[in-house]
Specification:
It is built from 14 helices and eleven strands. The chain is α+β, with helices and mostly antiparallel strands and about 400 residues long. Strands 1-11-10-9-8-7-6-5-4-3-2 form an eleven-stranded antiparallel β-sheet.
Length: about 400
């Protein structure tokens, strides 16, 4: 009869030694018992490891170290060189401007890097320009062909979106590790074409849910090294933000009617002075800026509060509607009064606000990120998307 051994009191090391020296043929039941106990220990170790990786070790607020004077000196030189070279220098200008913004944005003691090559962007812009000119020429010569091309562009758009995001992520680095994007055309077509088309049959009432799916598609397919982003967005939040933003425009437009800046009478509208027309346009711009700030703040907070970089970080956003509305409104005033020359100042102000109202909760697994070998994506898709006015952004 086999002597009864209580392996439950053994340490993990003792269990491994006992299993190594056990005669399995003579004591098969003991082997099963030992294997079970060893598996339980391994599972316990894995759970502890996961808990340690998910443990929040510190909270940090990103910082922006740039200033308007410094950025303006870079921006104005880039602008003048772009004008003198008839736009040829614009890729170099884009790289220099973006590198300044990225290089002055710090998170957890490290700064972001922009790794794009001006030549990459120049090639993309040349191809985009040729396609854009060809499209408009064909549309002018043959409206039917132009319409067919427009339909083709709609089908082609998801591919441009995916390629644009792949390029943008690939040229963004942090701690010598690049970001990457892994979205597929099929899902992009559903999200960016099919859902918005179906929302037509609901008189666009379902469009906020489509917007939520777009943001979800983008975030869920971004990787930092070998770690993936993950988000769970609520379509109801998008609908609420859209509804309230639209509702806010009603009293503003009513005021414009009362002031005579808006009229449904064709004769009155025709007799409005140029100055009055400009004032009307500016009024609409202010309404759009202020009301859009509510949507931006609400959705930005929702996205950040419900997204995380697996095993690396969780995020919080504390955008306030009144603060953001004032920032956007004052930036708009600065741009109008300076004929656009205050653009560097407005970008610096916005970057400071974005960083100041963002919190990153860093997990213990942040130092275990491995660099990915992702090399796909090029500037062509990005520049074509930009040329055809396809603005790919979250929120």
């Amino acid at each position: 009869m086999e002597p009864n051994i209580d392996y439950s009191t053994y340490t993990y090391k003792e269990l491994l030694e006992a299993r190594q020296h056990l005669d399995v043929e003579q004591y098969p039941d003991r082997a099963v018992q030992l294997d079970k106990l060893i598996a339980e220990h391994n599972q316990k170790f894995e759970q502890q490891h996961l808990q340690e990786e998910h443990k929040i070790v510190r909270e940090i607020t990103p910082q922006f170290h740039g200033n308007a004077k410094e950025y303006f000196s870079i921006w104005i030189v880039n602008l003048l060189l772009t004008i003198v070279t008839l736009g040829v220098y614009s890729p170099w200008a884009k790289v220099r401007n973006t590198r300044y913004i990225y290089g002055n944005t710090e998170a957890d003691g490290h700064r972001f890097t922009y790794l794009a090559s001006p030549i990459q962007i120049l090639k993309g812009r040349v191809i985009a320009a040729v396609l854009l000119v060809g499209y408009y020429m064909l549309a002018t010569i043959s409206p039917f062909s132009g319409a067919m091309l427009a339909i083709g562009l709609v089908v082609f758009m998801p591919f441009l979106v995916v390629q644009s995001l792949k390029f943008k992520m690939k040229v963004t680095g942090y701690r010598n590790i690049r970001f990457s994007f892994h979205g597929k055309y099929g899902r992009a077509f559903v999200v960016f074409v099919l859902y918005p088309f179906l929302s037509l049959f609901t008189f666009y009432l379902a469009m906020p849910f489509a917007l939520a799916k777009m943001d979800e598609f983008i975030i869920d397919n971004i990787q930092y090294g070998d770690k993936s982003f993950e988000t769970k967005l609520q379509g109801g939040t998008y609908w609420e933000a859209s509804f309230i933003s639209a509702l806010m425009t009603i009293p503003a437009i009513f005021v414009l009617f009362q002031l005579g800046l808006v009229s449904t009478d064709p004769e009155v509208a025709q007799n409005q002075s140029v100055m009055l027309s400009i004032l009307t346009m500016l009024a609409y711009l202010v309404i759009y800026t202020v009301c859009g700030s509510y949507y931006q703040a609400r959705i930005r907070n929702h996205i950040y509060d419900n997204s995380e970089l697996n095993d690396v970080a969780k995020f919080d956003s504390d955008f306030k509607f009144t603060e953001l509305a004032w920032l956007n409104f004052s930036n708009l005033v600065l741009l109008v009064l300076t004929f656009g020359l205050a653009l560097p100042l407005t970008q610096v102000r916005k970057q400071h606000y974005f960083c100041r109202n963002t919190t990153v909760r860093v997990m213990a697994g942040a130092d275990s990120v491995l660099a990915s070998q992702e090399t796909s994506g090029n500037a062509i898709g990005d520049e074509i998307a930009e040329a055809f006015d396809l603005d790919v952004a979250i929120g």
